[in-house]
Amino acid sequence: MIGIIGAMEEEVAKLKELCEDREEIQKGPYFFVKGKLSGKEVVLCKAGIGKVNAAACTQALIDTFSPSQILNTGVAGAIAEEIHVLDLLVSKDAVQYDMDATEFGYPLGQIPREEDLAFPAEEKMIEKALAVGKTMQDFHTFLGRVATGDCFVSSQEKKEFLRKEFQASCCEMEGAAIAQIARKNGVPFLILRFISDEANTKAPMTYTEFERKAIAQSVDFVLEFLK
User: Fold this and answer.
1) Active-site residue flag, 11
2) Which tens digits make up the pLDDT trace of 8-61?
3) Which of 10, 11, 21, 23 is flagged as catalytic?
4) What Cα–Cα distance (Å) separates residue 36 from each residue in 1, 22, 24, 40, 49?
5) Whole-prediction pTM value?
6) Tens digits of per-residue pLDDT, 144-165?
7) Which of 87, 172, 197, 198 is catalytic?
8) What domains, with CATH codes, occur in the chain?
9) Which residues are in coiled coils (predicted)?
10) SS3 114
11) CA-wise closest residue to 98 among 46, 165, 48
12) Of 68, 109, 116, 222, whose CB neighbour count within 10 A is largest?
């Protein structure tokens, strides 16, 4: 079974609607939809926005369903110069850029007493996503680092910081938290992010304009990925 997590209901609503043999299950504050997509057994959930929501939902999903893989789908702001609105970023790894224990000698982004600075995605999932991306004509697919923090990035200064300090390709608010919990539990994961804005001063307007299209592309991609 593959666990699919989105931060917002609109990121998973269409996938829930398309589920065959659909079953709804509540676990604490989370409402899971179990069923089949593209012939594969899946369980879908809206986590809520931000790292704490994402981590809590991921652990609840793992405890309840013991998924073989976790796929985190959603939208993000572009950080790398070559990535633009409606392109796809496939995670190489993910880092929590707002973790700062540098006063104790840790690199910026390193969680104290944890092994990983960045949490690496599962290689076979990466390979499959990149292969699916090559078959898509409407956007470009990139492999790179996801930078996660509890902040909507909308300044050129912050964008440049994430690019130079972390070599980030995109920024968002959940991926690295999901990655951390998946890794602690030994569950392979992958983050998929369609670009809704370019994380600059125009980001709030661009996000509003392109969010729906980016989510629609995400749904189509996930269905192909599952085949």
Assistant:
1) yes
2) 999 999 999 999 999 999 999 999 999 999 999 999 999 999 999 999 999 999
3) 11
4) 9, 7, 13, 5, 25
5) 0.94
6) 999 999 999 989 999 999 999 9
7) 197
8) 2-226 (3.40.50.1580)
9) none
10) coil
11) 165
12) 222
